[in-house]
Amino acid sequence: MMKPSKPERRRFILPSFLFILFLCVLALIVEVRLDSLLKFGQCVNSFSSSQSYNSPTMVANSSSSDNDDEIRILIGIPTLADQYQRRHFLRLIYGTQSPVGAKIDVKFVFCNLTKEDQKVLVALEIMRYDDIIILNCKENMNKGKTLTFFSSLPEIFNDKNGSYPPYHYIMKGDDDTYFRFNNLVESLKPLPREDLYYGYVIPCSSMDPFKHYMSGMGYLVSWDIVEWIRESDIPKKQFEGPEDKVFGDWMRNGKRGKNRFNAKWSMYNYPEPPSTCTHELWPDTIAVHLLKNQEKWIRTLKYFNVTHDLKPSKMYHIA
Ligand SMILES: *[C@@H]1O[C@H](CO)[C@@H](O)[C@H](O)[C@H]1NC(C)=O
Ligand SMILES: *[C@@H]1O[C@H](CO)[C@@H](O)[C@H](O)[C@H]1NC(C)=O
Ligand SMILES: *[C@@H]1O[C@H](CO)[C@@H](O)[C@H](O)[C@H]1NC(C)=O
Ligand SMILES: *[C@@H]1O[C@H](CO)[C@@H](O)[C@H](O)[C@H]1NC(C)=O
């Protein structure tokens, strides 16, 4: 192809730039929202980066959105110290997701270490990944680990110099649940950041978030509820039993969670075996639960195209 001469190129630049500006203004009018200014920047950016010309980048760095708008979420996944493989797997799953407009920290939560080898291996993991919380407790499932988890958080994260709240939302997730961060964040954006109790309401057939409680597959509360759990006597008096149900009892007895959000059917159990709690995999998904074996994980990950962004390279060939 012949390169156009310089004046011709310049003649081309101006109209195309005006056209881009026109498109951006159009987009702006269509979507008049608070964050539209940022969108404008991204819009110009996406056009200008696809141009071969070195047009001036009048672009706000998208990292400048690291401010009040950004939702901070902690996902605590209770597990056991010896579950090295499971943690490795979940780090792969979540380390390859980069949510837009939010900071999501996934932390693995267990009680006191009990073996000498753990003291080496877990310490190495912490040095490498820094994503482990060791609570002051003896390992247990339905005898208060959840209470220890939530009530330890204010002290663990009370950095006087840091942001307040340290996290807007705390989620307790299962290690056999697959979370899709972008959809989680989108669902949270319109919701209150106070007194929120969010999840998949039990019983499965109910769509009323005030009915019973949110399933342990993944429930989320705002930071004020975490502080309440630490201070209130209600959880201290009653913490034995299925942790998700017990949590729901705290909310009811303490009159907490006036704001509730039922994320069903964006959260659901894996389609097999079918039950009233399942749903087919579909695009509008925040979480899939009961991924009890590799086959179910693989089918789920494939369905959501998680490897589509693999960049081509001479180093490998994956069909
Ligand atoms: C823009 O963002 C990138 C990555 O988030 C960061 O490394 C860089 O320092 C930022 N530049 C400015 C000017 O803020
Ligand atoms: C957990 O470990 C800490 C530090 O070693 C110890 O002080 C605490 O008593 C232990 N807690 C339990 C419940 O065993
Ligand atoms: C908080 O910031 C002050 C001043 O920058 C510093 O001296 C202090 O060590 C910081 N405290 C913590 C807990 O990081
Ligand atoms: C995965 O990719 C295929 C092919 O590009 C597309 O048809 C499908 O909608 C995608 N699935 C999801 C859940 O995004």
TrEMBL record:
<keyword id="KW-0808">Transferase</keyword>
<comment type="pathway">
    <text>Protein modification; protein glycosylation.</text>
</comment>
<keyword id="KW-1133">Transmembrane helix</keyword>
<dbReference type="GO" id="GO:0016758">
    <property type="term" value="F:hexosyltransferase activity"/>
</dbReference>
<dbReference type="Pfam" id="PF01762">
    <property type="entry name" value="Galactosyl_T"/>
</dbReference>
<keyword id="KW-0328">Glycosyltransferase</keyword>
<keyword id="KW-0333">Golgi apparatus</keyword>
<dbReference type="GO" id="GO:0000139">
    <property type="term" value="C:Golgi membrane"/>
</dbReference>
<keyword id="KW-0472">Membrane</keyword>
<keyword id="KW-0735">Signal-anchor</keyword>
<protein>
    <recommendedName>
        <fullName>Hexosyltransferase</fullName>
        <ecNumber>2.4.1.-</ecNumber>
    </recommendedName>
</protein>
<dbReference type="InterPro" id="IPR002659">
    <property type="entry name" value="Glyco_trans_31"/>
</dbReference>
<keyword id="KW-0464">Manganese</keyword>
<comment type="similarity">
    <text>Belongs to the glycosyltransferase 31 family.</text>
</comment>
<keyword id="KW-0812">Transmembrane</keyword>
